[in-house]
Amino acid sequence: MAEPAARGPGQRLFVEFDLDEECPLGFLDDPSIVLFFQAWAFSARFGGQHELARAADYLQRQQKLDLKPLLKYADRDVESAEDRRELERSWQPARDLAVCALAIAEAWEAPDATLAPLVSGYEHLAPRLRELAAMCEWGAAREAQVRMSFDLREGSSGSSTL
Predict the structure, then answer these.
(1) Cα separation values, 145 from 51, 76, 95, 153, 155, Å
(2) Of 5, 24, 36, 111, which sits with the fewest C-beta atoms within 10 Å of its C-beta?
(3) For 10, left (φ over 0), alpha (ψ -120 to 50), or beta?
(4) Alpha carbon of 147 to those of 8, 64, 76, 108, 131: distances in Å?
């Protein structure tokens, strides 16, 4: 398997494909906002009230967007067999994630009156989602699976346990 498509110093979010070929695309700026949105979107099902949780809930309930592909990610800091299983379960069809990321980006870029105040200040999410979608389209063209993972350890490049 090739190196993750997203990498760099202080890297927190990783995008990998089950290919020997390395993805030539990557994030053009810090993708941490994607991870931030993923965490708040996940919290929405538990009543999270942060504006990003409310935005995610609105996208799912009112605009009928399927956010499940974006919420399928795992921690790279594998400390147990269960952690490893969770990391392995996070593979998914690249096309599904591409469609999801692009749909969210489009809604973010042209928000309606309800979504606009929720996304204000987070405009930098849409370009990162478009970059994620482009990476996934590249993978989908090769019928690849994609895995998103994160690493929050200080000073980590994220590759020590994989």
Answers:
(1) 31, 17, 8, 26, 28
(2) 24
(3) left
(4) 17, 24, 11, 23, 15
- 158 in a domain, yes or no? no
Q: Does 156 reside within a domain?
A: no
Q: Phi, psi at residue 158, to the nearest 5°?
A: 85, 5
Provide the whole-model pTM: 0.88
Residues 21-76 pLDDT 10s: 999 999 999 999 999 999 999 887 877 789 999 999 999 999 999 999 999 999 99
What CA–CA distance (Å, rounded) separates 55 from 144?
30
User: Does residue 47 lie in a domain region?
Assistant: yes
- Number of domains into which the chain is organized: 1
